[in-house]
Amino acid sequence: MKLKNKIALITGGSSGIGLAIAQLFLQEGAKVVITGSNRVKLEKAKEQLKGDVFAVQSDIADLNEIHDLYQQIHKHFNANLDILVANAGIVKIAPVEKVTEELFDKVMSVNLKGTYFTVQKSLPYLNSPASIILISSIAAKSGMENFSVYCASKAAIISLSQTFAAELTSKNIRVNSISPGVIRTPIFEQVDATEQDLQEWSKLIPLKRVAEPSEVASIALYLASDDSSYVTATDFTIDGGLTGISLF
Predict the structure, then answer these.
(1) What's the pLDDT tens digit per position in 74-132?
(2) Sign (positive/negative) of CA torsion 51, 180, 110, 146?
(3) Active site residues per annotation
(4) Could you give the count of Cα atoms lying within 13 Å of 112 in the half-sphere of its Cβ?
(5) CA torsion sign, 18 to 159 to 64 to 103?
(6) What phi and psi, each to the nearest 5 degrees, are found at residue 220?
(7) What is d(CA 171, CA 73) in angstroms, rounded to the nearest whole number?
């Protein structure tokens, strides 16, 4: 029970990595808030999770909704947060010459602006100590064809985790990031990836398999708990060795 009596917010907690983190945090004794922009998926996730779960429909690209989210959480629990996992994000791809202003603004509005203000507006509602975990991607660390905007947005997340960490040490708030590789989540539906695509990608991974969301959740648990009390401004890559080991 590493998170007993802790209150944790996980944005984008209705599926994939966010849902896996919520499940593990509940098992470890936390009270959990999950958000999502799709009410149907959010309610389904709440039913799937067993424990003290508060589900709030919220669009992190809308600053008013972020503000309202924290007010609802504080009213519901009559207490501040101990853990924030900024996980919500989207993927939209296009070759450079076909990237539109609309695509650029949409990705940056959710992935970068949404993450930034999710953290900023959490500060009056965070305990001391507290842990903030930002979800980036290995896309932040290498060029990927057709993913220019997404890669840039995720690279910015790692930078934010470091600058936030620098600013928030005086408040006894640790900030770290996680950069997952190829994880079996619904996000691949956004880029029309099939099971066969995942199997082909697994051949490029030194550990020869695609990861499960629960494997990312285990790292999130470490960063949320006192086990990582001396860890801040650090990015954790979870990619089966893809970015660190050459197969040539």
Answers:
(1) 999 999 999 999 999 999 999 999 999 999 999 999 999 999 999 999 999 999 999 99
(2) negative
(3) 150
(4) 16
(5) negative
(6) -60, -40
(7) 21
